[in-house]
């Protein structure tokens, strides 16, 4: 019996006590009663939860072959510290991350050779058209912003990405409840039943991307997803011709935390979608074990535009494979108040018209 008293109430987390009158375990806080056998089974379920293991094999990328990088140069931004790689025929006078001048620091050396690359399918003309479409119809966008926004300075950049593949075994426990109500001539009754729900099973993941650059905003990079990795090809230096490529500064080992976060969240969402038929479902704990995990090094195509307006930096990204465009836009406060007053005035006029019509009737 002492072991049972160590349990917290599955409904409210209060300490459970034995009630001699009912010969049951009772929570003094919410009044829920438990059969001792049911509580023992619940305890066994808790003790059977596996430990979490999310380890990886991060041996990604390969070695550059002799002479393969002879035609590439490294450009360094003195402002943000960004290092980009381009062939010797590509002009790289501005940093794609902050827009400040960059200087050539020498021949490319070091870093791993990418395993895969998704070639650009959206050319510069299409990227400019996508950005213009992103601005179109934004009535609160300052006109001077569009005039000062050097949209033709958009740059094609290959972003370093670590792709994680793994199989996951997961165990997730939920607190669920089901409520029913009924009434008679005098009272209305509500009965709430509480359940301990578990889900266990396996799920596979392929090509979970994690941005390998600290200069590339993770939110922006994830916003331009998805990329179709089925169109990725074995890396060849020819694909970099005419474009810039960011040198990764976050290796595969340092990217594991972000990969685990995305995998665990996706696993929990997939399992939660199977818990149905309850009034409420609250996840309590989850355990994810990974096996057969591996990481690969890839380059993703993104068009980047940085612009500064009123001292504030705005960054836009265009998926170089699909044309999907993301980026925050400034708001003209004067235009906003004119728009708001116009909407308010129109609503007032409609309300007045309805009131007058009702008065006539």
Q: What attributes characterize this protein structure?
A:
disordered C terminus; elongated; 3 domains; eleven-stranded mixed beta sheet; N-terminal domain of TfIIb; 7 helices; disordered N terminus; about 35% strand; about 350 residues; alpha+beta
Distance between the ends: 77 Å
Please report which band the strand proportion falls in: under 5%, 5-15%, 15-25%, 25-35%, 35-45% or over 45%. 25-35%
What's the average pLDDT?
A: 79
- What's the order of the H and E elements? HEEEHEEEEHHEEHEEHEEEH
Number of helices: 7
Structural class: alpha+beta
Radius of gyration: 29 Å
Q: Could you say which overall geometry the principal axes of the C-alpha atoms support?
A: elongated
Tell me how many strands there are.
Answer: 14
- Describe the biggest sheet? 11 strands, mixed
Helix content: 10-25%
Which oligomeric state applies?
A: single chain
Q: Estimate nothing, just give the exact number of structural domains.
A: 3
Low-confidence stretches: 1-5, 356-361
Describe what this molecule looks like in 3D.
By secondary structure, the protein is an alpha+beta fold. The chain has helices at residues 2-5, 36-47, 124-135, 143-148, 218-223, 256-272, 333-360; strands at 17-19, 24-26, 33-34, 72-77, 83-87, 102-107, 116-117, 155-183, 188-211, 233-234, 244-246, 280-309, 312-319, 325-327. The strands form two sheets. Strands 4, 5, 6, 7, 8, 9, 10, 11, 12, 13 and 14 form an eleven-stranded mixed beta sheet that branches. β1 and β2 (24-26) form a beta hairpin.
């Amino acid at each position: 019996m002492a072991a049972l008293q160590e349990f917290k109430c599955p409904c409210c987390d209060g300490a459970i006590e034995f009630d001699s009158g009912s010969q049951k375990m009772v929570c003094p806080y919410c009044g829920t009663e438990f059969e001792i056998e049911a509580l023992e089974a619940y305890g066994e379920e808790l003790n059977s939860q596996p430990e979490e293991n999310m380890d990886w094999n991060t041996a990604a990328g390969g070695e550059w072959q002799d002479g393969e990088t002879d035609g590439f140069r490294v450009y360094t931004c003195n402002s943000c510290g960004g290092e980009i790689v381009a062939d010797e025929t590509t002009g790289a006078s501005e940093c794609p991350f902050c827009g400040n001048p960059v200087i050539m620091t020498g021949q490319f050396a070091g870093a791993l050779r990418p395993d895969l690359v998704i070639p650009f399918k959206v050319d510069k003309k299409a990227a400019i058209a996508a950005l213009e479409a992103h601005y179109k119809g934004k009535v609160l966008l300052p006109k001077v912003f569009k005039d000062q926004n050097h949209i033709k300075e958009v740059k094609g950049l290959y972003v370093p990405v670590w792709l994680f593949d793994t199989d996951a075994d997961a165990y997730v426990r939920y607190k669920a409840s089901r409520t029913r109500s009924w009434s008679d001539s005098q009272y209305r009754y509500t009965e709430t039943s509480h359940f301990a729900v578990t889900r266990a099973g396996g799920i596979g993941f392929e090509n979970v991307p994690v941005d390998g650059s600290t200069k590339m905003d993770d939110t922006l990079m994830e916003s331009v997803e998805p990329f179709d990795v089925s169109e990725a090809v074995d890396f060849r230096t020819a694909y970099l011709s005419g474009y810039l490529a960011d040198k990764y500064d976050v290796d595969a080992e340092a990217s594991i935390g972000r990969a685990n976060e995305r995998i665990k969240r996706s696993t929990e969402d997939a399992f939660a979608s199977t818990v149905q038929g309850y009034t409420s479902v609250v996840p309590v704990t989850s355990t994810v074990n990974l096996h057969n995990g591996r990481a690969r090094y890839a380059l993703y195509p993104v068009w980047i535009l940085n612009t500064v307006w009123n001292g504030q930096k705005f960054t836009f990204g265009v998926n170089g494979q699909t044309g999907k465009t993301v980026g925050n836009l400034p708001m003209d406060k004067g235009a906003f108040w004119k728009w708001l007053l116009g909407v308010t005035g129109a609503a007032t006029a409609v309300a007045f018209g309805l009131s007058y019509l009702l008065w006539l009737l």
